[in-house]
Amino acid sequence: MTRVAVLYGGISAEREVSLASGAQVIEALREAGFEVTPVEVGADLPALIAALTPPPDVVFNALHGRFGEDGSIQGVLDWLGIRYTHSGVRASALAMDKTAAKTLFAAAGLPVPRGLLVDREALAEADPLPLPYVVKPANEGSSVGVEIVRAGDNRRAAIARNWRWGDRALVEEYIPGRELTVAVMGETALAVTEIIAEAGAFYDYDSKYAPGGSRHVIPARVDQRTEARALEMALAAHRALGCRGASRADFRYDDTAGEPGRLVLLEVNTQPGLTRTSLLPEQAAHRGIAFPALCAWMVEQATCRAG
């Protein structure tokens, strides 16, 4: 029987999401017939290494955010010579660094939002882009810290003053329209989902993870050409980063002037959420893949990159 250690929790801003993902993965893997050891991860790295000694056959990485999906834990697992799920060090680090990822996407011919990195002081002094624009951390996920500054909004100085995501922020043009997402399993883009935030126009952290926070329409009601393009772009982005296993590409779709509209790639998540409200399991189910089978597939795809 394959022995799988599930890493969940972690020390990032997305710890609670990871705890929820991990709990579901543990149950699903046991249902799929694996011998599962839950490992709740904290700040004590030697304790984590001890929990992985002797090594399991596979580590299922259910961590989210910094240290869990930015290449850090991936490097530790490579060093230990343990097979693990999802992407390796390079792809994980690139995807988590939104500026680096955008550079790669643009080089691959994929449309990305216009934007720039700005110092907190510069943001406090003046608008870096024409209004409206989006302010986001350059190295976080799950919409953590994301703000939209609109015409007539006087929050810019307060956002800069209270910024706690490093010395610089990523500022991007605001793209009106709809929120779309596409999950990828290996070399297959699964489906296009439209995400409709119920609490407001912005798909923020609460909309993503609170019950009833958003509504998912699958397949998205978009022009057939747009659907095909979204599937194609998600797979191209997955390949551009060098992702393995599953990933999820997020888009903005500006159809305010009619369809087909402007489809723009925002980012790729190399550790898609596996909670009850998560999009990857929903798209897999849409394609006839039950959650235990999805988790088992991830285990089967696990590799060690240490050679």
Q: How would you describe what is shown here?
A:
- Helix 1 packs across helix 11 (291-301).
- Strand 9 (178-185) and strand 10 form a beta hairpin.
- The protein has 3 domains: 3-86 and 295-301, Rossmann fold; 95-111 and 176-270, D-amino Acid Aminotransferase, Chain A, domain 1 (2-Layer Sandwich), CATH 3.30.470.20; 115-173, ATP-grasp fold, A domain (Dna Ligase, domain 1).
- The longest helix is centred in the last third of the chain and has 18 residues, at 224-241.
- It is α+β, with helices and mostly antiparallel strands.
- The protein has 11 helices and 13 strands.
- It has helices at residues 15-31, 45-51, 72-80, 89-96, 98-107, 120-125, 156-161, 205-209, 224-241, 279-286, 291-301; strands at 3-9, 35-41, 58-61, 83-84, 115-119, 133-136, 147-149, 168-173, 178-185, 188-197, 214-217, 246-254, 262-269.
- Strands 11-10-9-12-13 form a 5-stranded antiparallel beta sheet.
Order of helices and strands: EHEHEHEHHEHEEHEEEHEHEEHH
Averaged pLDDT: 92
Q: Please, how many domains?
A: 3
Total count of strands: 13
Uncertain spans: none
| CATH topology group of the largest domain | D-amino Acid Aminotransferase, Chain A, domain 1
User: What is the CATH first-level class name of the largest domain?
Assistant: Alpha Beta
Strand order of the largest sheet: 11-10-9-12-13
Characterize the main sheet. Answer: 5 strands, antiparallel
Shape: globular
| Helix content, binned percent | 25-40%
